[in-house]
Write a structure and sequence with these properties.
The chain contains six helices and two strands; from the N terminus they run βαααααβα. With about 80 residues, it is mostly helical. The chain has a single domain, classed as 434 Repressor (Amino-terminal Domain) (Orthogonal Bundle). InterPro entries: Cro/C1-type_HTH (IPR001387), Lambda_DNA-bd_dom_sf (IPR010982).
Length: about 80
């Protein structure tokens, strides 16, 4: 059985999208996914594949670490 460490990938997709004054649909079309995918990603309920994460970072012309970051369960609790 696979152990769940409780780690997560958090993101700033919402912040970058709003700064560009884009809708979720416009961003979704630009990176080749559905509007629903952008919606759940912005709510941190979905961790994208590496390919999609790189597509989004490249679209916004920033390093992937500017938008996506790894959070260990231990780090969340201080």
């Amino acid at each position: 059985m696979k152990e769940d460490f409780g780690d997560s990938i958090q993101n700033k997709v919402y912040e970058y999208r709003v700064l560009r004054r884009m809708s979720q649909k416009e961003l979704a079309d630009a990176v080749g996914v559905s509007k629903q995918t952008i919606f759940v990603m912005e709510k941190n309920n979905y961790s994208p594949s590496l390919v999609l994460a790189f597509r989004i970072a490249n679209f916004f012309e920033v390093d992937i670490n500017e938008i996506f970051f790894y959070v260990r369960k231990d780090d969340e609790n201080g």
